[in-house]
Amino acid sequence: MTRPASRLAIAVLASGRGSNLQALINAVAAGTLDARIVGVFSDKPGAIALERAQDAGIPTTVLLPATYATRAAFDAQLFEAIDPCTPDVILCAGYMRLIGKREVQGRRGRLLNIHPSLLPAFKGLRTHAQALAAGASEHGASVHYVTPDLDGGPVIAQVRVPVLAQDDADTLARRVLVREHILLVETVRLLAAGRLALNGDVIRLDGAAISTPLQLTANNDFS
Ligand code: GAR
Q1: Closest ligand 1 atom to the C-alpha of 20?
Q2: Which domains does the chain have, with CATH numbers?
Q3: Which of 194, 190, 179, 193 has the alpha carbon at shortest distance from 214?
Q4: Is residue 139 among the annotated active site residues?
Q5: Which of 58, 130, 142, 210 could form a disulfide with 53 if both were Cys (CB 3.0 to 4.6 A apart)?
Q6: Which pTM does this prediction carry?
């Protein structure tokens, strides 16, 4: 993706708490992230993410899946609402619904997701419990391009968090969440600067292919 002509326009999809959305809102408001959030879209009318958006003056849209005959019909309507906002990037930040193949394929390289695991490990739900059950010594979060495969698209960047002996799923989730907020903001910063591109399945940073995901360091930059 080349640097957008104006500030990177982001549409955010969120189903719940919206703390990742809030991290973006805060970075934009602080002037440390050269982007604008053009809309927040949700499948859950009670999502706290919607309140966060409204507090920040961001337009919100809610669509109720149960009122559509099929998932495809819901998705079509969702993107009919999103597309007029002309986002450069559509970001799933705690959006807990699968997006159909047709909508994903038409937006390759513009649709991203943040997932709370070191992909390809622990796809799907309850990732923190999955990591503990597997005896993992490390856990974390990943930002990836969305493809039709669940949590399966090319991974741009990750943050690693050690698993502690006394961790349960909640304590681990809390420590990962703090770091995933930073991971998300730093990854969006690369997008806003036009430094990332997806060619086929190959991610390029500043034009050079990256063979492994970028890793967020303790200094909050990438190695
Ligand atoms: C985050 O941990 C995000 O990575 C995860 O849901 C949480 C949403 O938190 N996403 C997924 O599990 C998607 N498969 P938030 O609503 O506070 O940003």
Answers
A1: 18
A2: 8-215 (3.40.50.170)
A3: 190
A4: no
A5: 58
A6: 0.97
